[in-house]
Amino acid sequence: MLAALGVAVGCGRSDEPDLVNGKTHFVEKCARCHVLARANASGVQGPNLDQSFGPARRDGFGARTVEGVVQEQIALVRRRSTMPPNLVTGADSRDVAAYVAAVAGQPGEDTGALATAGTPDTANVLAKAKGGKLEIDAVPTGATAFTAGKAESPAGSVTFTMKNPSDVPHNIALQDGPEGKVVGKGQVSTFMQDVKPGSYTYLCTVPGHADGGMKGTLTVK
User: Fold this and answer.
1) What are residue 47's phi and psi, to 5 degrees?
2) What is the torsion angle, in degrees rounded to the nearest 10, for the CA atoms of residue 151, residue 191, residue 133 and residue 131?
């Protein structure tokens, strides 16, 4: 990837990229594979974007050059790459590349509208167990998040279920406890556990997903 920096050139355009849209698509479609600190992305499959572009930026390569490289990598997926083709296209591809170019290897945190871009606002959504069943689904966008960031259940035997409506594989598990099977779109991850009064963390065990925000707190009373 870095070798391309030596020949990349900025692309002319008539309007500025939408960084909020770029971060939103990055979080939903790229964060599960790539590391990018400003997007709270800690994927384990693709290149670490902070390590890839941080040194280049410090060596004097501008954001436009980095943007051109990222956009080329998205458009021309290498053979046998784990990244699917056409992951983002058109203006969305340009916006993702511009966001990565703006923040990769840069210290600090995103501010303003960028701070919450791409993050589903489910942290305070509460799921309650009914009839010994607790359903906490994955969000449909592909972002690393459940539809509820909090859950409540009485003590006893509980069947945990997670429907996955997204294109990204997910599961549901209890931290240091049982876990459901990792499932694809349209499938259900489930397991049963006897729970005692206390606080538990439920999460997705796919590498990088819990660190990206796919976890919550279960309170058993």
Assistant:
1) -60, 145
2) -130
Kindly report, residue by residue over 171-185, the tens digit of the pLDDT: 999 999 999 999 999
Residue with token string 């538990």: 200
CA pair distance 32, 212, nearest whole angstrom: 8
The C-alpha R_g of the chain, in whole angstroms, comes to 19
What six digits make up the tokens of 78? 């290498």
Among 58, 44, 46, which Cα is nearest to 104's? 58
Q: What is the distance between the alpha carbons of residues 27 and 214, in angstroms, rounded to a whole number?
A: 12
CA angle (162 as vertex; 150, 170 as ends), nearest 5: 100
173-174 and 150-153 beta bridge pairing: unpaired
Three-class SS state of 160? strand
d(CA 19, CA 26): 10
Q: What is the CATH number of domain 2-116?
A: 1.10.760.10
pLDDT tens, 183-200? 999 999 999 999 999 999
Q: Residue 38: CB partners within 8 Å, gap ≥ 6? A: 103, 104, 106, 108, 109, 110
Q: Is the pTM here over 0.70, yes or no?
A: no
77: three-class secondary structure by DSSP: coil
DSSP-derived 3-state class of residue 65:
helix
Please give the DSSP secondary-structure letter assigned to residue 155: S
The three-class DSSP label of residue 81 is: coil
Task: Name the architecture of domain 126-220.
Answer: Sandwich (2.60)
